[in-house]
Amino acid sequence: MGDRKLLGGISVGGIIVIVGLLGMFFLNFWLGLIIILVGLIAFGGFAKGKWY
Q1: Domain total of the chain
Q2: Quick check: is 4 in a domain?
Q3: Which residues make beta-bridge pairs with 5?
Q4: Which residue has the higher pLDDT, 48 or 13?
Q5: pLDDT, tens only, 31-43
Q6: Which residues contact 40 (CB under 8 A, 6 or more apart)?
């Protein structure tokens, strides 16, 4: 499977984190925070011990 890289070297988790940040600013702070945490935990931000 690899690192799940997409266009420009951004992973699926990176895209989820970006969507979460936009959600924090435009929709609901807590909903955005939950989306960010799911992206980091499920797609390697915390799990692999590195940032995007």
Answers
A1: 1
A2: no
A3: 11
A4: 13
A5: 989 988 888 877 7
A6: 13, 17, 46
Domain that holds residue 29: 20-46
Distance (Å, whole) CA 8 – CA 49: 21
pTM equals 0.62
| Domain membership flag for residue 36 | yes
Average pLDDT over residues 14-21: 85
CA pair distance 41, 11, nearest whole angstrom = 13
In a domain, 13, yes or no: no
Burial class (CB in 10 A: 0-12, 13-18, 19+), 48: exposed
Q: How many CB atoms lie within 10 A of CB 28?
A: 11
